[in-house]
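agent> Task received from the user: take the single chain below, predict its 3D structure, and emit structure tokens. No templates, no multimer pairing.
agent> Plan: (1) validate residues, (2) run structure prediction, (3) serialize to tokens, (4) report one or two observations.
agent> Step 1 OK, no nonstandard residues flagged.
tool_call: predict_structure(input=
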Amino acid sequence: MPTEKAPHDLDAERSIIGSVLLDFSCLLRVEDAGITADDFYSAAHQFIFNAILDIKEAGQTADIVTTCARLKDLRKLETCGGMSYVAELPSIIPSAANVAQYCAIVKEKSLRRQLLKKSFDLAAASQDNANNVIEIIEQYQRGLGIEQPRKAGRFDIKAAIGDLQSKINMGFPGIEPPYDILRKTIRKFIPGTMIILGGYTSTGKSAVAVDITARLCRAGNPSIAIFSTEMSASQYILRLLANETHIPTWMIRENRVIMEAQRAILAEAYRHFKDKNLHIYDNLYQFADIRKTAADIKTRGLDIVIIDYVQNVQCEGRTIYERMSSLATQIFAMSKDLGVTVIALSQINNESARDSDNPVIGYKGAGEIAAAADVGIWIERDKSEDDRLVVKVRKNRDGRTMEGILQFTHEFTRLEEVREEE
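)
tool_result: status=success, residues=422
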């Protein structure tokens, strides 16, 4: 795509940054408009906006001095025109009152550039005989991967209240979760909610996801879609079988199940999961593909989506902060749009883990993950007994927060709740 003809509006870009430097509180409105650094056409403006986000993530206020200092640390100040250019940005607007309009202009130009680039890429791929035509068609069918701006529909308060009353009278929809700690806090896996399950690497996040899935399948037949970016589908199924049969995973994997009784139990477990409405994908890493697949399953019925884990999911944004900030809102929107419970597994950052007084988990990459979630859960190994997991419901928009203990049997990928009296 000829870059000199790419749609852009440098005045609107300057006005956004100038608004933020003039009134830092309006950064929230900029982020609410979905603006990321990639939406800026000018590389200098991208650097400046990223510097502002870095300052925000550090818990500080961005102004001319702090922004220039951050750019200087990154060795980008002169690339961006020096302190004189940054200093003049707030002066080009009378106030920050019209920042939403500037954002709309920049976002519209950004979407046009994305659309043009996708079109050029598709045309170039189609002309190159070295490319597999079937793969090109599949890429086209998956969509452009461009998030469309949302438009608010007409809100009817009477209809909304009527809908709520109907749900309450009929019994609020949802699936009863396993474990007393979840039944006492979130009460149900309610459609349209986003749950974040955080923990250090190798703490047991995937084991919890497996155990929840196995327990829900034993209790009924909900439709569950698992999007694994780490384990293969075979590994997930292997752990589900071990959980169901109490036969160690290594015995199943290596075909060492020789006792007749165990072979019968394993055969029944295979039949059990074949009859369940369970979907496991291990080859989808783009969030656009995950959402499209979930939407396709939803047409046949879908209750719960498990994403394992979010830091491996790809979406727009250059830094992990930008990716996770964007992903948080997109996962939240998917739960509402599809009417499903989303359980997203996430790593947590070290700084948050050290802050025992912090009621909200700092998930790795962006605080927006915790902010978007309806429920925030943190798991960690018990310091006195390594085979026990401490489960902390630390954020719950609709109820209590509390802690519980799960006994972990690694070879079965199975968890049992430890009662308080124990």
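agent> Step 4: summary for the user.
The longest helix spans residues 99-127.
agent> Done.
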